[in-house]
Amino acid sequence: MNANGPRQAWPGQPTKDKTMTETTQPFLFAYAVEDAPRGKKAYWTRIGRLFAHKDGKGYDLVLNALPINGRIVIRQEEKEDATAQ
How far apart are CA 34 and CA 44, in angstroms? Predict the structure, then answer.
């Protein structure tokens, strides 16, 4: 939606009531990974989400940022242990 109301499709193009990201949970997450000096952990920053298509034949990758160095890694989210410090 913008200041002028809902986004309009080009003439003759079908529209969707909701996008995939509004109706499903992320399947995997995208991270920008920058390697650290030897012996140290790499730097991981979450930059997006991957959603499975309802028909099971594809995915939508929604990125919030792009790395200027490093690499993009797609992984399952790891649950943090609440007791870990």
Answer: 7
Binning pLDDT at 50, 70 and 90, where does residue 1 land? Answer: very low
Beta pairing, strands 28-34 & 43-52: antiparallel
Assign 35 to helix, strand or coil: coil
Q: Is the pTM of this model over 0.85?
A: no
Cα distance between residue 27 and residue 42, in whole Å: 23
The CA radius of gyration of the chain, in Å to the nearest whole number, is 18
Amino acid at 46: R
Are the C-beta atoms of residues 7 and 37 closer than 8 Å to each other?
Answer: no
